[in-house]
Amino acid sequence: MRFPVLWRPPATPTLQPVRASVESSGLRSQHTVAASVSKGPTDFEECKRCSWFSSGGPREGRRPSHACAILTMLLSVALGIVFSCTAVATERAADANRGAPAPLLNYSWISLPPEHVPYFLHNNKRVAKRCRRDPLCPFKDAPLGLFACWGYEKSCDPGMRFSYPVCTRADSGWARSLEAAQELFWKQADFGYVKERLSELKTLCKASKPGDSSLRCSSHTRFCKATNLYLDLRRPSRSHERYKEDFIQKGEIGGHCRLNKRALAAEGEHKSPLQSWYAELQTYTELDFHPIEDGHCDIIIEKPTVFMKLDAGVNMYHHFCDFVNLYISQHINNSFSADINIVMWDTSFYGYGDLFGETWKAFSDYDIIHLKTYDSKRVCFKDAFFSLLPRMRYGLFYNTPLISDCYSEGMFRAFSQHVLHRLDIPQDGPKEGRVRVTLLARSTEYRRILNQVELVNALKTVPLLEVNVVDYKYKDVPFLEQLRITHNSDIFIGMHGAGLTHLLFLPDWAVVFELYNCQDESCYRDLARLRGIRYVTWQKMDKVVPQDKGHHPTLGDHPKFTNYSFDVGEFMRLVLEAVDDVTHHPKWPSQAPRDEL
């Protein structure tokens, strides 16, 4: 932008013209005043001395020079133009923002792994429809849910399922053909399990009109969904028991709906703290008032709420039964928003020790609420479900009977992806020319590797292997860091113990090596089959040496209560077999070198 020449200085003294430049954007400006004279002080310096530029004007008794006045005038004009341009530009930017198209939907709540988005859209037609019409939808590259399906949907083509089990043979005790074996495993431990639970849902308390309450449950009240639920905790009979079966009395839980008392009473066969919700719901009462509309609630919870009864929070194997069943429950409920409350149902006065508390962030944006928080109040929940439980009969994954010789990259893989995505755990590999080996050490009294240093030194003689020894003490290694290490391991080695539950978060191409299973053969082998990764364990019993017979506090001799030494040659043979499995996996980069063994 050029400014008109407003003034020409006299011939003597010579004064250079004032220059002012303004960036064409109008958002930033630069002002330059350059003046020089052939001799003596510049008029600019004189202006400064007379304080003409100060807020108080010229000093009393002095008049600014002609040049000073002109300079000041030009600066004022330039500044006025700049501020005017800036104001106009700001107004135009605001107008532009007001005119910019807005998304038809706030998509930020759909925080899912990219691979899961098509399946989510298949089950949420309204969101998929808006996304198709919305040029700003971030899921334009997804097939918008037209064909992809988890497998439990009524309209799902079996060929479009998220996954399907692989069986190497048919166990005659379970199935007569490979196809029958695959279908059975899918129902036992994959998304067919969700389909089975969905098919069991029945209405136990029916709403008569909009605004009424309702209660629907799967068989044996293992999963239940409630609306406008009334819970009276004004007189809680708390004790040292975490799951007191008579904690809720008649009239203290219920809703305004038509209760099928006979149907509810028939669901009590599995009554047990971590197997069923029957103890909590057996006194569900048909109320003669509308809890919310008639003002019978001290607190009204608008946000969707999940009730959970939790297993041991200090043991990863048991606690992740809680998380896996919460994830499965979300599929049953078709709801994956983290804008929910999770209420820990606990009838004791105690808190809950949780070594893996960061995992809750994968499911809720808020802290877990202990039931005792609501003591002395009548609480009404507009929308709630009672999650599947961690130790159900034929549940997942504690006490899960599985058909042999089958595995799946289905529901447990989806769980792993979901948690890793929500917790923002990155995958930094595979590394070209390297296989990352993580050995999980134990600082516990039992099941330690007595010749661990010797085994690690043997691993380090193989140039291909990048060896890392870790001890997952929660005080030293935060759980999210544990997950990062595990997820970036190609081979994960450890003794039998809850730490091997980390195999859930290994990459798809990884191998888990249970160094010695301590005669508990199925536990982590089956968990690896659920996750769909390769499992290896010690094979030659003459090449492992126990420290002694073991010292169980009540049972006497026991293989889990001692320590072990391992033959180095046999150990390396098994590790190199695992390396071969990793580097030949379909998801391992084909260009990775395989000749360094």
UniProtKB/TrEMBL annotation:
GO terms for cellular component: endoplasmic reticulum lumen. Coiled coil: none annotated. Keywords: Endoplasmic reticulum, Glycoprotein, Glycosyltransferase, Signal, Transferase. Its EC number is 2.4.1.255. InterPro entries: Glyco_transf_61_cat, Glycosyltransferase_61. The keyword Endoplasmic reticulum applies. Belongs to the glycosyltransferase 61 family. Catalyzes the transfer of a single N-acetylglucosamine from UDP-GlcNAc to a serine or threonine residue in extracellular proteins resulting in their modification with a beta-linked N-acetylglucosamine (O-GlcNAc). Specifically glycosylates the Thr residue located between the fifth and sixth conserved cysteines of folded EGF-like domains. This is EGF domain-specific O-linked N-acetylglucosamine transferase.
